[in-house]
Design brief:
786 residues, five-stranded mixed beta sheet, Maltoporin, Chain A, 25-stranded mixed beta sheet, mainly beta, globular, 5% helix
């Protein structure tokens, strides 16, 4: 199958060795090319103009993704201010943040941002591993859950793949090659099997690169990332009443990576300089072994609509399964050269979702739209982990103790929902919705064959609401206000394997989270729809916000007594977030358009207790650069094994605002060709970071991407040159507070039957940086329906 995909894609791209196709138009385009194109979205589970939806929605069309050479899902954040995307380094800790509400996948909680593919709920990991043949991405801000399947406090991201056309044969091939050892080949073929009744489309992807590009000073191995995927789709419309869309996707990915470090003396000038000095721009680590993962995904989505008597019966379902094998290096300080010392993980996950809803296709009594339905989701993610501990004798590695850990768990969610919209004429609408959900899960943990957590069961239920009011003063100006609620069940954070004290339990078994949000804004166009300007303000209150904090030391217990442990504990905190979103576009003249977007979000914890390092007992987090001794830790924590501090810090230490600007100028070269220049600029302001971390302050910086090329006027081909991060700006985005270290158990004389927990450190801290400058060429050829 893989060789077939390679041959098919290569054949399609061969025709375009010097050319590539022009981007697809937006969902609906004005006949006057001096006007802005209309964007159609499905934010409210129906197709409608973006400018009529009474909430903040950012739409990124497939045309935009192609124009800006977006090949990785994480790069979408450069197009949507206030959206932060993290693909992780291990294949499954993917996360999205909107409006300043962070999410850490390791917390075990449901995400703050829900993901949907072709309207069906998916785990975010399926979105992050590939980006090809996409029709549109919509980013919905604010609480979701009354109209969409899963409750999410911050928003949702919906991805729609291109569906088969029923009347015309066609396809495309798209090849990108760059100076960072990257090659990306993707394409699709569309076949109308039965004209106007049955259509088939198959899309594929082959991507080969050096991943994040981080090497190691102690290894000759190059990082790598290899992905291939195939996606067949089927569309069936036997008559005007019935529509069925089916999609299947298979993806395989293999990654080899190193953890990037920088000399602590470069970030904290009070620390001595130790050779070799490693600068952030060197983009290297220090381990002589690499981490790796292999991932296989299978995903199926189904959509069906049946229209009758002015009503519509809709079904949306999905089934997905994923297998992951990972090896994570544990010798972070490279204390034991030439020794393979790491932690293997085998994880599987299966999920099924089913939703049935009935809605009005035509307005009842000329003024009422409604939707009612039910939703079911089942998730089963078992994993097998081998925890490794290094045992040393006189500073040398004596053995590695392996502890098998099996985690089993299932979750089930059921809900019913309804939504009604009253139209008062064509200018005013009042909409409201409710969802009642029931959630239950069970978790088991087995260590070395002995149950530690034996089928722990939790149940929760919640009622969610959403209400909105909008009024159009004209076809060009609408004001709106909305309010909504969200719910996330509190997880049991696995990772502490000792009897729990009351303080430990508060930061392991977390409370259910509830939140309410309020938003008001306007959407407007001016100058004969050549200028668009949308703005909104929002405020959100959280009760028991689920947060996972930084690494904290606690008193662990083993057969030999108390020892120093460390863990990223969870916190349930009351918090608030407020901010503003602005979006603007300007069709300056034919061929020249500009757009910009701005997002600001300020978060604050309401003087709540969080797990912390507090060795001096002053109630404030300490900035530790190395692990405390067991004596220091016992004196600080007493019988509770863990310290707590009251804090009014932000929920996350990232910039409060960011800005994105885009522009394109195109003009005819001759009767058949157009030439163009495009630009994308993103700006991130200065941030001081966590007060307990001396290393994570970041100066403000901007990144500029430039694109130029020629395209055929009929959209059949395009040749583009591009440069991303034109000025090769290198900035540290994140930096740990403590030195990279390898935890060991040191055998103690004279009997050598006891051990002392200690950490071997190196004079470096783990960092992440901006991606290096990338220069490449993109060739695209398209024919027929494309």
């Amino acid at each position: 199958m893989r060789k077939f995909i390679s041959l098919a894609l290569a054949s399609a791209s061969f025709v375009a060795m010097a050319t590539a196709a022009a981007a697809q138009p937006a969902a609906s385009t004005s006949s006057d090319d001096t006007m802005l194109s209309e964007i159609v979205v499905t934010a409210r589970r129906k197709a409608e103009s973006l400018q009529t939806v009474p909430q903040t929605v950012n739409a990124v069309t497939g045309a935009t993704l192609e124009k800006l050479n977006v090949r990785q899902f994480e790069d979408v954040q450069s197009l949507v201010p206030g959206l932060n995307l993290s693909g992780g380094t291990n294949g499954f800790t993917t996360a999205a943040t909107i409006r300043g509400a962070p999410f850490q996948a390791e917390s075990g909680a449901q995400p703050t941002v829900a993901f949907y593919l072709n309207d069906a709920t998916i785990q975010s990991v399926y979105a992050f591993q590939s980006m090809f043949d996409v029709g549109q991405i919509e980013v919905l801000r604010g609480p979701q859950g009354t109209l969409r399947g899963q409750s999410a406090p911050s928003g949702s991201i919906t991805i729609t793949t291109r569906r088969p056309t029923l009347s015309e044969f066609g396809g495309f091939g798209n090849l990108t090659v760059n100076d960072q050892h990257g090659r990306n080949l993707n394409g699709a073929v569309n076949v109308p099997v039965i004209s106007d009744v049955l259509g088939f489309r198959v899309a594929g992807l082959i991507d080969d690169s050096r991943g994040n590009g981080i090497g190691s000073i102690n290894s000759s191995t190059h990082p790598s990332s290899k992905t291939w995927a195939v996606r067949p789709s089927l569309r069936f419309e036997p008559n005007d009443d019935l529509t069925v869309n089916l999609m299947y996707q298979h993806l395989e990915k293999k990654v080899i990576s190193f953890a990037q470090v920088a000399s602590v003396s470069l970030l904290d000038h009070s620390q001595p300089a130790v050779q070799p000095i490693i600068r952030p721009k060197d983009r290297v680590g220090i381990t002589d072994d690499f981490s790796s993962f292999t991932q296989k995904q299978d995903l199926f989505t189904a959509n069906a609509d049946y229209r009758f008597a002015g009503q519509r019966l809709s079904y949306v379902g999905s089934f997905s399964k994923m297998g992951l094998r990972q090896f994570g290096v544990q010798d972070a300080a490279n204390a034991f050269t030439g020794v393979v010392f790491g932690q293997p993980l085998h994880s599987r996950a299966k999920q099924s979702t089913n939703e049935l809803r009935l809605s009005s296709d035509d307005r009842l009594f000329g003024m009422l739209d409604y939707t009612v339905g039910g939703y079911a989701q089942d998730f089963n993610p078992p994993s097998d982990l081998t925890n490794v501990s290094a045992v040393t004798l006189f500073g040398r590695l004596a053995s590695v103790v392996e502890t098998p850990i099996q985690r089993r768990g299932k979750s089930h969610e059921r809900s019913i929902f309804g939504n009604a919209t009253l139209h008062f004429g064509e200018s005013t609408e009042l909409s409201g919705g409710l969802r009642k959900l029931w959630y239950r899960d069970s978790n088991s943990l087995i260590i070395s064959g002995a149950p530690v957590l034996n089928d722990k069961k939790d149940k929760a239920e919640a009622t969610l609401y959403n209400v909105s009011l909008s009024h159009k003063f004209s076809s060009d100006f609408m004001v709106y206000a909305n309010s909504g609620s969200a719910f996330r069940p509190g997880p049991f954070v696995v990772g502490v394997f000792r009897p729990l004290t009351p303080t430990l339990e508060r930061h392991v078994d977390l409370a259910n989270e509830k939140s309410k949000s309020y938003e008001a804004g306007f959407k407007s166009t001016f100058f004969d729809k050549r200028v668009l300007f949308n703005a909104a303000v929002f405020h959100q209150d959280f009760n028991d916000y689920i947060q996972r904090g930084p690494l904290v030391y606690y008193v662990n217990l083993n057969q030999l007594g108390p020892t120093v442990g460390n863990f990223n504990f969870g916190n349930s905190v009351d918090a608030k977030i407020a901010g503003v979103d602005i979006d603007a576009s300007w069709q300056v003249m034919q061929g020249l358009n500009l757009s910009g977007a701005f997002s600001y979000a300020k978060s604050k914890i309401k003087n709540q207790a969080v797990a912390c390092n507090d060795l001096n007992g002053d109630g404030l987090p300490d900035a530790l650069t190395q692990a405390p001794t067991i004596g220091q830790l016992l004196a600080a924590t007493g019988t509770q094994a863990l310290s707590e501090c009251l804090t009014s810090d932000p929920l996350q230490f990232t910039p409060k605002w960011n800005l994105t600007l885009q522009g394109e100028y195109a003009r005819p070269v001759n009767e058949e060709l157009d030439g163009y220049v495009r630009g994308l600029f993103t700006y991130r302001p200065k941030t001081s970071g966590d007060p307990s971390n001396a290393n994570d302050a970041v100066d403000g910086f901007g990144l500029l991407n430039l694109y130029t090329g020629v395209r055929s006027r009929d959209g059949g081909w395009e040749v583009a040159l591009y440069a991303k991060n034109v000025f090769n700006t290198v900035k540290v985005l994140t930096a740990e507070s403590s030195l990279v270290g390898t935890s060991v158990q040191a055998l103690q004389p004279p009997t050598f039957r006891t051990v002392q927990a200690t950490t071997i450190t190196a004079p470096y801290v783990a960092v992440t940086t901006t991606a290096p400058r990338e220069v490449g060429i993109n060739l695209r050829y398209a024919f027929g329906s494309r």
